[in-house]
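In response to reviewer comment 3 from the previous cycle, which asked for concrete evidence that the modeling workflow produces usable outputs, we include below a single protein chain processed end to end. The sequence was submitted unchanged, and the resulting structure tokens are shown without manual editing.
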Amino acid sequence: MTTWTLWIGAVLVVGGSAAHLTRQAVAARALWVLAVLAFVATVVGAVIVSEVSLPLLLILLVAITATVALVSVTRQPAQPVTREPARSVAARRDVQ
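The workflow returned the following structure tokens.
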């Protein structure tokens, strides 16, 4: 079962990144939360079944690192705050 939850988590991370790139932030966050839950379920399932091994721990470390990397890569850069220059009422009337 741990393999399936890892694959499900990976698919959810990729889906969340794709949703984020298409500017669907709410869907992206929901998919990422579900991915984290899948990774947590993997850890809990491995501990309950006592399947904790070095390969499993390495896979989980890679999965979590990949999740963090994808989230940081798909984060939108901060937009600089630009202000329009102040114009007088007369200048605004000339533009219109």
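Residues 25-49 form the longest helix (25 residues). We consider this sufficient to address the reviewer's concern, and the full set will be provided in the supplementary archive.
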